[in-house]
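Long-time lurker, first post.

We've been arguing in lab meeting about whether flavin-adenine dinucleotide would sit comfortably in this protein at all. Half the group thinks yes, half thinks no, and nobody has a model to point at. So I'm putting the question to the forum: if I give you the sequence and the SMILES, can you give me back a predicted structure of the complex? Inputs are below. Any interpretation is welcome too.
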Amino acid sequence: MIKHYGVIVIGGGASGMMAAIAAAEHGASVLLIEKNKRLGEKLRITGGGRCNITNAELDVRVLLKNYGAAEKFLYSAFTTFGVKNTIDFFENCKLPVKVQDRKRAFPESEKAVDVVHVMQNKLHRLGVKILLNTAVTSINTANDKIEGVSCDGGVYKANSYVFATGGTSRPETGSTGDGFGWLNKLGHTTKTPTPTITPLALRDQWVSHLAGVTAKDAGITFYSNGAKAFKLRGDILFTHFGISGPLILNNAYKVADILQAGDVTALLDFFPDINPKLLDQQIISVLNANGTKLLKNTLTMLAPKGLTPALLLKLHTAINFETKNSEVTKPMREKLVQTLKAMPISIEKLMGFEKAVVADGGVELKEIDMRTMRSQKVSNLFITGDLLNINRPSGGYSLQLCWTTGYIAGTQAALKPQ
Ligand SMILES: Cc1cc2nc3c(=O)[nH]c(=O)nc-3n(C[C@H](O)[C@H](O)[C@H](O)COP(=O)(O)OP(=O)(O)OC[C@H]3O[C@@H](n4cnc5c(N)ncnc54)[C@H](O)[C@@H]3O)c2cc1C
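Top reply:
Settle the argument with this. Predicted structure of the protein with flavin-adenine dinucleotide, as tokens:
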């Protein structure tokens, strides 16, 4: 016999778990279907394993400025369940939250897995039935409504359905874009996802020697076909394939734009506050104070932490690093200054979905009643999280979107069906 539920939530990520909790709290019998063998696979890797749970900007109008064109669509939703509700939710579940720079909020334990455990415990306490290792394979409709979902193990039915299957970034976490296909079939318009918040791959092999090094407060100027395009300033993290960190991730979309026009290069400035002449003077003082030492053993005093291997590699033909500091020549110093002030790199591409933090794309917001997260095409369908076409930077804004849309979808789905 087919068991009939009040609400079926498909996808046990951040927004799906929140939707299931809200639906159960509002009295519905809830079935949560997740294709992975455990819940919250992507949530576990958020914030480098620390989970930037939200952005603690309590002024909703200021906060919403970060959601681009979605700003006006989200106002009602965020006044129903916003940042304060999120922090209260987790603190009431005995998960204290702390706020760090750029208002980024994390669990005090700095463990993303604790966030998953809090959600799991709450789901269990509320009696939500959880089906793991179960992929929904098709959506069955009748009379413009969803009347059931088919999985390998059978068919499940409910009054209302929440699609919380996520986007397409990091597909190994289960976000393989299944929801986009279903939504298209149901008559929705979905924007094809592209990786948006994603690192940049470089052609320069030497960067792999800097993997893990962060250039603090550096400058980077991008060039499109040799012409200056735009400049950024902040921390730049080197990885084994290129550059990353919030500054790069949040501006990758600008690089995507100029990549379409052709060749993209950039110059890294490790001393953006001083001009080449002043940097040369600083280098002279260090060399003079360490005259008997070899240049190769003095580089750590001349360049930002961690940069030495790259300098040795890049400059070994131009500079003899075995030279005694007292014998370093002007052309050698000039080469060093030039490299530290304008180290050239060549951008190959944006990393793809496999490295992206967020892929944009999803359902056009005008096709959703954003006060309820109800589909305007199918009256017993609610849509959450990364399935929505909303651009936002890193900094806790994505997960806040999941908590907000999940809570509202779950609450509304639990109400009497329309
Ligand atoms: C590396 C990384 C770090 C991030 N860090 C942060 C951060 O610190 N702060 C922040 O705000 N945001 C962060 N994000 C973004 C954030 O993780 C996502 O926006 C959020 O997890 C999306 O949640 P979701 O519920 O929409 O979907 P997902 O978390 O993608 O969950 C969807 C779930 O649906 C399941 N599913 C898919 N198809 C089916 C099917 N057919 N049947 C059954 N189940 C299915 C999947 O297995 C998955 O578990 C990060 C993202 C990445 C990749």
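For your lab meeting: Residues 199-351 form one domain. The chain is about 30% helix and 25% strand. Whichever side wins, do check it experimentally.
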